[in-house]
Design brief:
The chain is about 0% helix and about 65% strand. The protein is elongated and about 90 Å long.
């Protein structure tokens, strides 16, 4: 009895190379003249903002800043927020990207911390970790069945989840709303804020995906008399259409925010 396997060729992308780099950045900032002396540092948070990114010849060059927010208290215990911008400039070098390969870059801020040097100066330090991956086209062979002629085969049948990468595409959209970024809003003093993208619905078509969602922003600030902490949450809707090569049902959606 001769068995013949029924096989299917699936186009996919496989990782070809990965290069990583991490650099530390720091800056000493002066407390603005409009604020009192700082007595205690409470919270340091921030986001990585990129305004230039070049991917060419197997290398990545990026330029931006870490938009940090330092929350301090003065001698009376009153809270105040100090904006600090840490310049960032990095370059990842490596082999040239071969024809048909696609680059993918991940960046994140690690170990963000603040230090109160004196009542009028604060130091912000952070590490930026970048990972550059390249993907190349390949084919995945999957056995879909067996043919044994007239003989009977008793096989155990079960479902197997076989993940594979078929495309790496990136789309940038802009969602705008009137929100205070730094400084003093109309009804108080801004302490901190966080923004998170949320995907509510994904509609799959023949060769495209429609994504609908919202950006949830949480604000924490002092009211006008600077006595009470107030927390507010706002949501900004967004939608976009992604063109997909291959089977749209196997797409995986990943979202992250950048700032201007």
């Amino acid at each position: 009895m001769e068995l013949q396997l029924e096989q299917q060729q699936i186009p996919c992308l496989i990782p070809c190379a990965q290069r990583s780099a991490e650099e530390r950045f720091s800056i000493d900032a002066v407390v603005p003249d409009s604020l009192p002396d700082a007595a205690e540092l409470l919270i340091t948070e921030g986001d990585l903002c990129l305004w230039r990114l070049d991917l060419s010849d197997g290398s990545a060059e990026l330029e931006g800043e870490i938009a940090a927010r330092v929350c301090c208290a003065d001698d009376t215990g009153a809270l105040m927020s100090i904006p600090v911008r840490v310049p960032v400039q990095m370059r990842l070098r490596g082999e040239s990207i071969a024809s048909g390969q696609r680059p993918f870059l991940r960046c994140c801020v690690q170990n963000l911390s603040g230090q109160l040097l004196n009542s009028r100066k604060v130091r912000v330090q952070a590490a930026v970790h970048c990972s550059l991956l390249t993907y190349g086209a390949s084919e995945l062979t999957v056995t879909t069945g067996m043919d044994a002629g007239k003989e009977k085969l008793y096989l155990r049948k079960s479902q197997i989840l076989l993940p594979y990468l078929s495309a790496v595409e990136e789309r940038v959209i802009t969602a705008e709303d009137t929100l205070p970024r730094y400084g003093v809003p109309t009804d108080g003093k801004l302490i901190s804020y966080t923004s998170v993208p949320i995907a509510d619905d994904c509609e799959y078509g023949e060769s495209r995906v429609m994504v609908k969602g919202r950006i949830r922003t949480s604000l924490l600030y002092l009211n006008a008399n600077e006595r009470n902490l107030i927390s507010e949450t706002t949501e900004t809707p967004f939608s976009c259409v992604l063109d997909v090569d291959g089977d749209v049902s196997k797409c995986k959606l990943s979202m992250h925010l950048t700032s201007e």
